Amino acid sequence: MHTRSQKNARLAGRGITYVILIGAAVICLFPFVWMVSTAFKETSEIYQMPPTLLPSRLAFENFVEGWKGAEFGIFFKNSLFVTLLATAGTVISSSFVAYGFARFQSRLSGLLFTILLGTMMLPTQVTLIPQYLMFNKLGMINTYLPLILPSWLGGGAFNIFLFIQFFRSLPKELDEAAKIDGANSLQVFTRILLPAVKPVMLAVLVMALVYNWNDFFSPLIYLNDNMKFTIAIGLQFFKGSQGNVQIGQMMAMSLVALLPVLVIFATCQKYFIQGIKMSGLKG
Length: 283
Fold this sequence. Notes:
This protein is mainly α. 71% of the residues lie in helices and 0% in strands. The chain is built from 14 helices and no strands. Helix 3 crosses helix 14, helix 9 (173-180) crosses helix 10 (185-196) and helix 11 (198-214) packs antiparallel against helix 14. The protein is globular and about 75 Å long. It starts with a helix and ends in a 7-residue tail after the last helix. 27% of the residues are buried.
C-alpha cells in the first residue's frame, strides 16, 4: 500500500508538471501562432472584433505585396550578406583566440583572461558612443564594416569562453603527438583541435547566425541609406506616413524573415544542445 501511494503521488506530480509545461508552451507559442494567422488574413479581418484565430480566407497577396512594395528582396540580400560574413568571422576569430588562451601560457594570461570575462559584464550601451566615434573617424558609417568587422576581431567574449572550456577539456598529449609527427601550431589547431570541438563550433555558428540575422540595434545606429537596411530595419517601411500600419504585410514579411532562423535551428538543434552541454571527448 505504501509503495502504491508513492507511485500515485509520483504520477500526480508528473501530471501536474506536464500541465504546467504545456500551459507555458502555449503561452510562449501564442504570439508566433498569432503572427502566422495574421500574415494570412485580409486587412478587414485583422481589425475584426471579436478577433478570430484562423483566417476565413488565405490572403497570399500579403506576401506578394509585402515583398514588392517595400523592396524586401533588397533587405533580404543585405541581411544575408551581413549575416554570413559576420558569422564566419565570429566562428573563426573566437576559436582562434580561444586556442591561444587554452594552449599558450604567459605571465599575462591570467590578467588577460580576467579582462576577457570582465567585458561580458559590460552592456552594449556602455561602449556604444566610443565605438560609434571610432567608426566615424575611420569613415565606416553607412557601410557594413561596423556590422562585420567586430566579428573578425575576437567574435565575442562569451564565444571565446565557450571555446576555451572545450579546448581545455582536450588532453595536451594530442598536441604533443601531432608536433612529434611534424605538425606546427596552426596545423594542430586546424587539423586536431577544431574537428574535436565540432559540437561547440556548430553551437557558436547557430547562435551567431540567429543574432546577426535578427540584429536590429547595430544596423539602426550605423546605416543611413534605405537600400542598405537589413530585414530588421526594413520592417518599419510597412508603417505609413499617417501612422497607419499595414499589419498583414508586416506579419507576412516577419514570417519570411523568421523562416531561415527556424530552418537553421531545426537542422542544427542536435549540435546546438550538444555544444551547450559542454561535452568533452567521448570514448
